[in-house]
Amino acid sequence: MAQNPGKFALLIEFFALFVALPCAYFFGAPLAPRDSIFWKIAASPLPGLALMAYYCYTRLRSDPLFERTRLWSADRVGQFAPSILVTFAIIALLIGAGVWMLAPERLFSFVRSNPRFWAVIMCFYPVLSVYPQSLIYRAFLFQRYRSILSSERILVVISAVVFSFAHIIFRNPIALVFTLVGGWLFANRYRQSRSLFVSAFEHSLYGCFMFTIGLGTFFYHGAALPR
Q1: Cβ–Cβ under 8 Å, residues 65 and 52
Q2: What predicted TM-score, i.e. pTM, was given to this entire model?
Q3: Which residues contact 93 (CB under 8 A, 6 or more apart)?
Q4: Residue 1, pLDDT score
Q5: What letter does residue 6 receive in the DSSP assignment?
Q6: Where are the domains of the chain?
Q7: 183 against 150, higher pLDDT
Q8: Pairwise CA distance, residues 75 & 164, whole Å
Q9: Is there a contact between 42 and 170 (Cβ–Cβ < 8 Å)?
Q10: Confidence check: pLDDT of 37 > 80
């Protein structure tokens, strides 16, 4: 049986994963030569995200107290679908209206300019990006640090903050604001449903919508690197 680390070790791990790594990417990319290995790695955060997700998954697997059913539990979608879809419809209408009024040239610009690439993102974004993020910022964070922060409501807030902070790599305030709100919504849904699939489903709706409505450039890895 795996022995849980002490509180100090957990704090060090938390700082390394959720503060140091985003900062290293944010400050390291501009300093790295364009022909360096770091620059090539920084060209896409997906490999780093996959490695981080794998680390979190191995820690969850070694935790005898973790309910592995939480990593999927797709059967719970029906229970939460009405709330998810109604909330999404309201927020999507507000965001869509905002784009139409403030930046009409962006409205569905990605779909119109590159429909094939848009279709690829719609297919692979939930699998390659959303689910690993959900594993890290919801399942892992809730399970790993609940001994430090026993209140799940506090864990929801912490999850939202570090999820938003990770998006400093995109170097724009819009990504931070939207992911702070979204991070709270997705973490709270995980707290309610005890299902990573449910939380990832909701996350996918908003992420795919952002790319579709024309705001994807604020969340695209190409914007993460200085020109």
Answers
A1: no
A2: 0.91
A3: none
A4: 47
A5: P
A6: 7-223
A7: 183
A8: 29
A9: no
A10: no
